[in-house]
Specification:
This protein has about 170 residues and is mostly helical. Helices cover about 40% and strands about 0% of the residues. It has eight helices and no strands.
Length: about 170
C-alpha cells in the first residue's frame, strides 16, 4: 500500500494537465493554414464550363472538348450498350428491352429535333437526367459521358461509324 502511495504521485505528474496541452478542437479554426493554388485541378477534371456542363457560356449546347480516336468509339459503344440501350434500344429508337415491362418509352434519337442537336445535348442529359431518366453524373466519369455522346451522334445518328465498331459485338 505504501508503494502505491509513492507511485501514484509519480504517475499523475507524468500525465501533465491535458487540457493545457496544444491541440485542435472540433469545429474550431485550424492553427495551420491550408493553401491550395488556384490553378490546381483535380484528377480527371476539366476546367472548361462547357466540358463540365455540356453548355456554351453564351447559351446552347457545346461540342465535345475531347478528340476521340476511332478506336475509342468501340468503348463508347460498350458504354452505350451498358447504360443507355436498356431504355433507348440498340439503335436509339426508344425500343429498349424494359419498355414492354412498363417503363415509359423515351424519345427516339432519330426524331428530327433530337437528330439536329450537338453532342452537348446528349452529354447534358446524361449528366443531369432528363424527364424520367436519372442522372449518370456519379455513375459514369465525365470523359466517358462525352464518349457516349460522340457514339450516339456519330454512330447512331450520322451513321459515320467505322465498320469495325458497327460489326463489333459488345456485351
Amino acid at each position: 500500500m505504501r508503494s502505491l502511495a509513492l507511485f501514484l504521485p509519480l504517475l499523475l505528474s507524468a500525465c501533465g494537465w491535458m487540457w493545457d496541452q496544444p491541440k485542435v478542437k472540433a469545429f474550431r479554426e485550424s492553427p495551420l493554414k491550408v493553401e491550395v493554388p488556384a490553378e490546381r485541378v483535380g484528377l480527371g477534371e476539366n476546367l472548361s464550363p462547357g466540358a463540365r456542363t455540356g453548355l456554351k457560356p453564351e447559351g446552347g449546347f457545346a461540342e465535345s472538348p475531347f478528340a476521340f480516336t476511332e478506336a475509342e468509339l468501340l468503348r463508347g459503344k460498350a458504354l452505350y450498350q451498358s447504360f443507355c440501350a436498356v431504355c433507348h434500344g440498340a439503335r436509339g429508337e426508344g425500343d429498349g428491352p424494359v419498355i414492354p415491362l412498363g417503363v415509359p418509352r423515351p424519345r427516339s434519337y432519330h426524331d428530327p429535333a433530337v437528330k439536329a442537336m450537338p453532342e452537348g445535348y446528349f452529354y447534358f442529359a446524361a449528366t443531369n437526367g432528363f424527364g424520367r431518366m436519372f442522372s449518370y453524373r456519379s455513375r459514369i466519369p465525365e470523359r466517358e459521358r462525352w464518349l457516349i455522346a460522340r457514339y450516339i451522334k456519330r454512330c447512331l445518328l450520322l451513321e459515320a461509324c467505322p465498320k469495325e465498331v458497327v460489326n463489333a459485338e459488345v456485351h
